[in-house]
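Morning!

This is the sequence you dropped in the shared folder:
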Amino acid sequence: MSRILNHRMRSSLRRPSWSCVDKRAVAFSVWTGRSVLLHKPLESYQIPRRRYGMLIARAVRGVLKIRYLLLGGAVGGGMTLNKKYVEWKDGLPEMGWLNDLLPDNEQWDKFTTTLLDAKEKIGDQFQIVGVPLTLSIHSDPRLREAGVARAAELREWLAQRYEDAVAAAAVNNATSRIEPAPKIVNNLQSRPAPMSAKSNTDETAAYERRVHALQEEVLSLQARYQRELQRLEQENRELRQQNMLLRQGRQPSTKKMKRSLIDMYSSVLDELADWDSGEAGRLPRVVVVGDQSAGKTSVLEMLAQARIFPRGAGEMCTRAPVKVTLSEGPYHVAQFNDSSREFDLNKEADLADLRKEVDLRMRNSVRGGRTVSSQQIAMSVKGPGIPRMVLVDLPGVISTQTVDMASDTREAIKEMTKQYMDNPNAIILCIQDGSVDAERSNVTDLVSSCDPSGKRTIFVLTKVDLAEENLANPNRIRRILEGKLFPMKALGYYAVVTGRSRKDDSIQSIREYEERFFRSSKLFKDGMVAAGQVTTRNLALGVAECFWRMVRDSVEQQADAFKAMRFNLESEWKNTFPRQRELDRDELFERARAELLDKSAELSGVPAAAWEARLQNALWAAAAQRIFSGIYLPAAAHASEDVDKFNTSVDIKLREWAENELATLSIKAGRQALREEFSELMSKSSDSDAIYEPVKKAAVDEALSRHQWEERAQDVLRVLQVNALQDRCVASRGDWDSAVSLMEDALKERLKTTEEDLKSLAGPGFRERWLYWQSSSEEQNRRSEVKSELERLGSSRPNLSYDEVVAVRDNLRRRGVDADNEYIRETWKPIYLKQFLQRALSRARDCRKSFYLYTQQNGTGECCEVVMFWRVQSALRTTANALRQQIGNREAGRLDRELREVLDEMSSDADMKKKLLSGRRVELAEELKRVRQVQEKLEEFIEALNKEK
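The structure's back. Tokens below.
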């Protein structure tokens, strides 16, 4: 212990710090009881005083710690508060757009200066005006006093207005918040001049009414401004929220947009565009009919306030029905129902594009040599002040058919026009050209036949300016507009001017010309025709009023009709298909698509052994005929009993086959195996609905017909096959037995086919004739005689010699059978083939036990045929393995992509889906779906219509 203390003392003495020395000294003194440094007793040091000092130091240190904690908390809290403030400020709506609306400080200063000048000028004027006013009414002191009082009162009111305006400007400059506009208070007191008791009371009441009406108008405008401001602020907040969500990578929730009444009604008509039911065409719409070039399109353009239709000089432009939905909106735009592009009707470039698109759609609808089409083109037009209605512009009725038209054009137009007008709720807008004789009209007879009482017909006379110039008796126009000239009745008669035969005229210029004409026209200026019967503006108001009255009167009945139709269809479904879901054609197709793609994905899970077995069978089925007819039989016939010749011939023919045909044949076999495997996968789904089968079959067949194996795969297969066929050494007993089995199976199958061919040539045998009552024809009897004679000949050569043929012919002639040399040789071929196959089958059985002899003879010997079949089998195995790898690596994925492409094309082809998915079950589900959609849209429209009332 003393050593430790001495060491610590030495180390402490080496340090320059005296505080450390004192600490070591005190510690040693405590241990020994004496002072090391001063050699004084330990009691002589004032240790309690040091203890108090240490306590004070600790207290000071604690206070400093508390200060640091408070300082850190204040800094952290400030940063957190600043961060919260920044987040709150970012969450506020963007109101920068108000800076563009509110005036700046310079503008407010100019406004203040202007008010000051106005105050001085107005004050001076009233001081000046007061003199002549007093002079003019000096005869009546009451009037003089009233005038002076009114002038003073007006000055006081203007001064108060100025002070209010200055105060409002100061408030707007000081704050950037949006506050409700201050309530306008009328400072003018209703004190008219006291003329007399009765006149004074009347003037006071009238003055107060005017002031009250002005106050209400100002308050109404203020409320509208406030509501619009709140709506804009709400939209701004929603847009900012969506922007924040998009920045965070989140998709904003889609809200159902509020649609206008006319858009809702137009969507119902679109649902019923190609409906075959009788209830489909009973909803109201405005049908625009008239003779060709009568001005139908011009009237429609005036209602739409834009030149939206193409025009042609003397050529039929309207070739198909065009449904136009007119509605009011903030911007003047047009849009097709099946397109997302909006055409700005205030831009001439967009107008030209719109006319081109309409013309293109019309020409596309009249394919196949037709001139007109019943296929409807649907579009919507929105703009300020446009009346809400749905119009259908039809091709003009013609009286003469030109040579460039289809033979049924005139009748087709009449039938189409009658079909639209036969709707009992349709409003017929009958357009008549006023510049031609009334006797030349073709459409009035059609209109009177469809609406004889005229309860839903509105008659429009166009080109009235030309009619007034050309007609010798303008009184005819008055008679037409009174309904006394044409043999038809109408709800209303209108006269309009829709142009000056110039294409470049704008709608506004035509309107101005129309108004000028009706103001200056003698016929209409003299009051012979009511003012409400002229101009397209009055026509639009009248047609819109009639349209909505018809809608309100009939829409409830149509909704009830569809409700009853839905009930009947649902009852039929429950009774006919009680345990099946109501799946329409699209849903059924999507289910079939899903099953097909699931089965296609299972291709990659087929075991390799199953693939190779299937591929080998497919390869052998494709190559068996070529192996027998092109390789084995010619080599055996050429070599006869010479083994070397047989092997040489086999080598040559196998190499030619591998280099020229085998690779292509293998690709076809691989496609066939892929098809069979896929078909089996399809058939394994026992729970699949039978209604999907036409779709599956058509999609699979189309995908497989498109599927082409990669071209480079043939080169790879060709190299592998040539190498496999060059190997002549059978390495194992298993390979030998496998080759023998292949040879036996092939020979048996071929022998069976040959015997059937001989049987068909020679006719039924003795057993078939007696047991199954079968008889032979004369030709079969002749073949049978030749066959018997050739079998007795006992030749073993593939080709008969001339002497042998002559001998057989002579023997047959003695028996009364006439046969020429070619007939005998033709009959000998199947007989020889049968004998050869029987001998080969016998050799194959003998060779099964000759593997040991084959190994001893180093690959030579009598069993060369087995070696040939083993080479073929080895090549087919190698090919099957390569094809299996290609299917797993590439072809299955390519087939899956092609199947998806086929399904995508089929999903967009409505006619194809209708052809593949048919039957009462599908048709009933389709009708149910459409009836429900129409009913739901009608109920939604009726609810909105009742709210608007």
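Headline: The beta strands are 286-290, 322-328, 333-336, 343-344, 377-383, 389-393, 427-433, 457-462, 492-495.

More detail when I'm at my desk.
O.
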